[in-house]
Design goal:
The protein is α/β, with parallel strands linked by helices. It is 29% helix and 21% strand. The protein contains 16 helices and 20 strands. The strands form six sheets. Strands 3-19-15-16-17-18 form a six-stranded parallel β-sheet, with helices on one face. Strand 7 (144-149) and strand 8 form a beta hairpin.
Length: 442
């Protein structure tokens, strides 16, 4: 196994996408567990995906004669570089004759906060933001369209702009997700542009449709890519999202898989089920990661870098799956820049965004927690921007550090001179290679 005392990992998704240098003490054995990765696509290669959609006609043919279009994109909690795909989508719609004035881009953030104007430019691109109407979905809005209920009782309420558009298309990314195997696909409809009642039912009750499936929905299993994944999606939660998408008439999907540096490695256009499954299979290979057996036995420290899901601190839980696979109960250090600094998930707070901001303002004076390493169970989270009050609410039993050197100094005082470290550069999207997952999870 190769070792090095300095490791460079990416950081600050959407807020610079910079390299962070991790320095370790002399004598420590440092091992990098990187994903398989894939080369970045050129603009021409991205365009080729639109020429040959999966399971549907190309967009310009499917949208011909439509008087309006809604394009749903994910928000900054997801690392999807939508601005690189949207020009191709908009060109296809223009070729179909869909009026520019009747084409709206909707940020389908589910219960997340709305994007600012500056963030909208980041997400969709300056030219697109200046030319097309854009808006963020409000899951607590009263202006929703009701579609009745699914057989399991899920009430279906959808953003009116999306519901009333004659052509509906989702543009997002495919990343490991503890409830649906891989995100993307129909998840941009539910919870993306769904109302409170729909999202509440989706998060709270949809898993009960198959009681035998509850055991397999542990985050470590889905993140590890175990055979319980069904073509890139865990049943029940994904079934609900796809049933609703079919009910409202979702026409097309554009999903991407990323490289370790947040570039586009694959684009999948077409039917919202078939294209998503093709993308999930590619994601499983691209994000696949090997953890050598000897390292699993000997590691004293596991470093989990949350990039590229390190903008919104809510996503931090997706970066800790590797610690399940190490035998010594190692210290787990999570690098989460959390540049957004806000742990707002409206369903959990049950507060609209404006009211949440008022409540948060009263708690902003909370001092940083004082690090005190008394055991190995707490997560050691290194974050420059995670606000203390937000951290205390979300990570009551964990420890917050503001810089890398401080946590290393604390660990060095506790650990032997020949400490073994495993570093995961992109933990939030990495998954255990399937051949390993079967044996590890057995």
């Amino acid at each position: 196994m190769n070792s090095s005392q300095t490791v460079s990992v990416p950081s600050r998704s959407w807020f610079g996408d910079v390299e962070r240098t991790l320095c370790f003490p002399a004598g420590w054995n440092v091992h990098v567990c990187a994903c398989e990765d894939a080369p970045a696509l050129s603009t021409a290669e991205i365009a080729e995906a639109f020429d040959s959609p999966i399971g549907t006609p190309r967009i310009r043919d499917a949208a011909k004669g439509k008087a309006s279009a809604a394009i749903v994109v994910d928000d900054l909690s997801r690392p999807t570089p939508a601005a690189e795909m949207l020009p191709h989508v908009l060109e296809e719609l223009a070729e179909a004759g869909v009026p520019r004035a009747e084409t709206v881009i909707v940020v389908g953030g589910g219960t997340h906060r709305p994007l600012t104007e500056e963030e909208m430019v980041k997400k969709v691109g300056a030219e697109v933001a200046a030319t097309y109407a854009t808006t963020s979905h409000d899951f607590m809005a009263g202006d929703l369209v009701a579609y009745g209920s699914l057989e399991d009782g899920t009430p279906v309420y959808i953003n009116r702009i999306v519901a009333e558009a004659e052509f509906k298309i989702c543009v997002g990314g495919i990343y490991p997700h503890p409830s649906v195997g891989f995100g993307g696909g129909a998840k941009l409809i539910v919870p993306g542009v769904a109302g409170f009642a729909t999202i509440f039912h989706f998060h709270s009750f949809s898993a009960r449709r198959g009681q035998g499936n509850l055991e397999r929905q542990k985050p470590s299993a889905e993140q590890a890519g175990e055979v319980t994944l069904i073509d890139g999606g865990v049943r029940d939660h994904r079934d609900v999202a796809e049933e609703v998408s079919s009910l409202i008439g979702l026409d097309m999907l554009v999903n991407c898989v990323l490289t370790s540096r947040r570039q586009i490695a694959g684009v999948f256009v077409g039917d919202f089920v078939e294209a998503h499954r093709a993308g999930a299979r590619f994601a499983r290979r691209t994000y696949g990661t090997e953890i050598p057996r000897r390292l699993r036995q000997e590691a004293d420290v596991v470093v989990c870098n949350a990039y590229p899901l390190d903008a919104d601190p809510v996503q931090g839980s997706k970066a800790v799956w590797p610690r399940e696979y190490f035998e010594r109960e190692p210290y787990t250090v999570v690098l989460n820049a959390a540049c957004d600094g806000i742990s707002y998930h409206g369903l959990h707070q049950q507060l609209p965004w404006p009211q949440y901001l008022k409540r948060k303002a009263a708690a902003d004076a909370t001092p940083d927690p004082v690090p005190a390493l008394d055991g190995r169970e707490p997560l050691l989270i290194v974050s420059e921007h995670f606000q203390a009050s937000e951290f205390a609410a979300k990570h009551g039993g964990d420890l917050l550090f503001r810089d890398w050197q401080t946590v290393i100094d604390h660990l060095a005082a506790k650990l032997p001179a020949d400490t073994t470290v495993a570093v995961f550069p992109n933990t939030s999207i990495q998954i255990l290679k399937r051949e390993e997952a079967v044996s590890v999870g057995a």
